[in-house]
Amino acid sequence: MKQYNIAYLPGDGIGPEVSAEAHKVLAKVSSDYGFSLKWVEFPYGATHYLKTGELLSQSALTEMADCSAMMLGAVGDPKVKPGVLEQGILLALRFHFDQYINLRPAVSFPNVPLPIALPKGEQINCVVVRENTEDFYMGIGGRGRKNFQVPLHAKRALYDFNATLDVKLDQDIEMAIQLGAISRPGIERVTRFGCELAKKRGEKNVALVSKSNAVPHIYGFLDEVTKEVVAKEYPDLTLSVVNVDALCYHLARKPQGWGVMICPNLFGDIVSDLLAGLAGGLGVAAAGNIGDGLSMFEPIHGSAPDIAGTGKANPIAAILSAAMMLQHVGEDKAAAVIEDAVKAYLADAKLPQMPIEFGGSASCSNVGDMVLARIK
Ligand code: ATP
Ligand code: MG
């Protein structure tokens, strides 16, 4: 029997609660479809950090590298200064394993309340392919006044970036500068990922979310290289370039009808949250951080300390992220079965069987059980 070692970080707050429901469902589909999952658990998160001062360890990273994928519950705790866990764990993992894609499907499910009602029979079913390492999220910049220097350093798997900016102002005013960079190999790999995904989904078009009219240096280059890759390597696909502002306007009026959207880091962050809101909210939004090495799957919500331990957490996002993980390791059939079970449960649930988040009375583990009961 095929066995996958899965690195598992339950984390904080509702992380372990929602992950437990995903595990229930995974145990069932793995036995039904003839593979097994071996969980390699790690303690990292706020509790471990507050107790030991450790965020991640080198030996853990080595152990994780041997796994087929990683599942993460959530990390975060109001007792830890904002940013410490995000940078020390989530971003550290992303950069260490060069997870250059943040994959965020936005799917509207039956009976899940939406802020904008869709015409009967129509569905939101798109996916944001967000570049995850470059653009304005490289953390390089600085501030000063009159005459100052800004050292610019970033270390990425693709390259080490080093520069110094000599700023001379004709007035003594304060100024802050943040640099975004986009590289040809960085664009190429995201474009290929988005196009492969579009092919797999049976789509004829991919969208590139850009803003080259106002930010011509980096997003003009982005448009150019993306067009080149699609024309040369994916002649069966058409590429539509859409400005991020226009996209937000269109999404607010008609969120359905989109497919694969390739986004640079900053726009991808914003557009994927907008779509998560439009498609039903945090309780159903899952994400994958994908690279050529270890990839990591997680619900997009945080640790939700306000509802931790109350049974109010909705585990569907965690269950859907488990399905994404199975798809990633090549268990497409088992992944589809999980998605279908979620759909079937939501479609038939009367209000009392719906998650508390959607006005129902089903607790976290009730929801997990009801999804489990629909696994075919
Ligand atoms: P973190 O710092 O860990 O990211 P956060 O403060 O950003 O946490 P989230 O944990 O993302 O916040 O939660 C935002 C709000 O959404 C909270 O009120 C939380 O209770 C609610 N929420 C988040 N996830 C879920 C879920 N799975 N089910 C129900 N409610 C949720
Ligand atoms: Mg958050």
Automatic annotation (TrEMBL):
Q: Which UniProt keywords apply?
A: Manganese, Metal-binding, NAD, Oxidoreductase
Q: What is this protein called in UniProt?
A: 3-isopropylmalate dehydrogenase
Name the SUPFAM superfamilies for this protein: Isocitrate/Isopropylmalate dehydrogenase-like
One of this protein's Pfam families, by short name? Answer: Iso_dh
Gene3D superfamilies per UniProt: Isopropylmalate Dehydrogenase
Q: Which stretches make up the Isopropylmalate dehydrogenase-like domain?
A: 5-371
UniProt entry tagged with the keyword Transferase: no
Q: So which cofactors does this thing need? A: Mn(2+); Mg(2+)
GO molecular function, a single term: NAD binding
PANTHER family noted in UniProt:
D-MALATE DEHYDROGENASE [DECARBOXYLATING]
Organism of derivation: Desulfovibrio litoralis DSM 11393
